Amino acid sequence: MNAIEKVGSYAVLMKRTFGLPDRWRMFFRQFLDEIQKQGLDSLAITIIISVFIGAVITIQMVLNTSNPLLPDYATGLAVRDTLLLEFSSSILCLILAGKVGSSISSEIGTMRITEQIDALDIMGVNSANYLIFPKITAFMTIIPCLVIASMFFGILGGYSMAYFTDIITIHEYVYGIQFMFVPFYITYSVIKGIVFAFIIASIAAYYGYTVKGGSLEVGKASTDAVVNSSVIILLFNVMLTKLLLS
């Protein structure tokens, strides 16, 4: 299947996916389960990575910008803008593409090869809407919380370097965090996170839903889902940055 055929197949699947659920009670039950699996189960890795990235950026800025012409508070400013503009949205979603994307693709792919999806279709259920819609909506709902948590704990990681070491004073770090703060950067990061969440969940679901063969193909589909969603995230990152910050 070439690229044009895949895009067409993906569009058809998304058209089947987005519609009113037949049973709202079942949808909300699945929605809450997906919030747990995709969001809350990803919170720990989000916090750990963000804390260490914030700490590392702080150390790197202090060690590599020892210039008398640069103010000391530039370290806090760089940590804040790096986290708000790129890491807590783009890089975090690239990481979650591996965790959440592969999970969605393998789960739906396993249902496909074990003919559970065929059974749903035979019973007259819109299997795409039943299986994929709760996953996409749940991930798009929870991703702003993960993005904001990443910002907070990333800045906290930098603060811990100022608190536990003498590479920078707490006053200089906090002043840099507050200096010329642009509130729209948070909105910008959340918007990117929501778009990237849709890309991750929908592409992973597509590869899982259309898999053919056995367990080996399910693994290959999961890999393809992660790789392709990562590339598309990078492409949309450029487009959204140009659109939102120009």
Task: Walk me through what this model shows.
With 246 residues, the protein is mostly helical. It has one domain. 83% of the residues lie in helices and 0% in strands. It has 10 helices and no strands. The longest helix has 40 residues.
The overall number of domains is 1
Discrete helix count: 10
- Whole-angstrom Rg: 21 Å
Kindly state the number of beta strands: 0
Give the overall silhouette: elongated
Percent in helix? over 70%
Distance between the termini: 37 Å
Low-confidence stretches: none
Largest sheet: none
Q: Quote the beta fraction.
A: under 5%
Name the structural class: mainly alpha
Give the SSE order as H and E letters: HHHHHHHHHH
Q: Features of this protein?
A:
246 residues, 83% helix, 0% strand, mainly alpha
How does the SSE layout of this entry go?
Blueprint: H1 3-17, H2 24-39, H3 43-64, H4 74-113, H5 116-122, H6 127-131, H7 133-164, H8 170-178, H9 184-209, H10 215-245
Helix pairs in contact: 2-7, 3-4, 3-7, 4-7, 4-8, 4-9, 4-10, 7-8, 7-9, 9-10
Quick overview of this protein structure:
The protein has 246 residues and is mainly alpha-helical.
